[in-house]
Each structure stands twice: as structure tokens, then as C-alpha cells.
Design goal:
With 160 residues, the protein is α+β, with helices and mostly antiparallel strands. It contains four helices and six strands. The strands form two sheets. Strands 2-3-1-4 form a four-stranded antiparallel beta sheet. A hairpin with a 4-residue loop joins strand 2 (83-90) and strand 3 (95-105). The two termini are 20 Å apart. Residues 54-128 form the Transcription factor NikR nickel binding C-terminal domain.
Length: 160
């Protein structure tokens, strides 16, 4: 571990200490490490579309908008390869919040989200991505295949 010193003016130091308290950090080092990680991840996502990401696409829409729910379902089915899960929350009589959990090539996830959020009737749409590195692993599962034998196959897992 490397150690370095940071100088802050009094006003910025006070704001930083308030931040530490508000988010229950035990010390300044923990907070600085988290802030640096977040900035590096954001920078990576903004400047590189070549990698893979996991993330969410969240938006609010009116289910009274003509055939919007049907169009959204169709778009989601067309992107089943990057869509992991969907959560829908009914906010009131007219509006729903939907969150899609995604994983896949960052470029594809961005294009999918931009296309989805741009649809008429979608309000307050936002994507949140985290870069990940995938490794291809071949292994057996204890579960049984259709032939009732343990099976082996290869697929990707995010590397930790």
C-alpha cells in the first residue's frame, strides 16, 4: 500500500468531513479510495466502449401511452442476450418505474439504453454501468441435464 499526503483548504476539508459523516466513513482514506475508484470507473466508461459492463437502465413511463408497454416488452425481448432481469413498480394510476438489469458489451448496452430511453412516453431515463472483465470458464454443474447426468459447458462469468 502506498501512502501520500493531500492538502485541502479549510472550506473543502469541512465539506469533505461532512461527506464522511453523512456516508458513515470511518476515516478519510476509505472515502478517498472510494472516490478515486468511482472516478476511474466513470472515466473508463466514458472513454472506452470496447469492454464489458454490468448495470441498470431505469426509467419512468406512462402505461396509458398508446401501446408503449407492448413496444417496451418487444424491445426487451429483442435484447434478451443482454437483459438479465426486469423490475416494474407501479407508482400511481398512470405511471410505472422500470429497472432493467443488464450485462454485456458496453457499446451494445449504451445503444440499447439510448434507443429505449428515447422512445416517446419514456420519462426520467438513466443508465448506470460498471465496467467488468469476463473470464471464460468451463466447469461442471451439480445439477442434472435433460439426460439426468451432470453436464459440463463453457460460459462467461465476471472476474472478481
Amino acid at each position: 500500500m502506498q501512502r501520500f499526503t493531500v492538502s485541502l483548504d479549510d472550506d473543502l476539508a469541512e465539506l469533505f468531513d461532512q461527506f464522511l459523516h453523512r456516508f458513515s466513513y470511518n476515516n478519510r482514506s476509505e472515502a478517498i479510495r472510494d472516490l478515486i475508484r468511482k472516478k476511474l470507473e466513470t472515466d473508463e466508461l466514458e472513454h472506452s466502449l470496447d469492454g464489458h459492463s454490468v448495470g441498470t437502465i431505469t426509467y419512468v413511463y406512462s402505461h396509458k401511452e398508446r401501446e408503449l408497454a407492448t413496444r417496451l416488452a418487444r424491445i426487451q425481448h429483442q435484447h434478451h442476450d443482454v437483459l438479465v432481469s426486469t423490475l416494474q413498480v407501479h407508482l400511481d394510476h398512470d405511471h410505472c418505474l422500470e429497472t432493467l438489469v443488464t450485462r454485456g458489451p458496453t457499446k451494445e448496452l449504451r445503444a440499447f439504453s439510448e434507443n429505449l430511453i428515447a422512445k416517446p412516453g419514456i420519462r426520467h431515463g438513466q443508465i448506470y454501468l460498471l465496467p467488468v472483465v469476463y473470464e471464460v470458464a468451463s466447469h461442471s454443474h451439480n445439477g442434472l441435464s435433460t439426460s439426468h447426468e451432470p453436464h459440463q459447458h463453457a460460459h462467461t462469468h465476471p472476474a472478481t
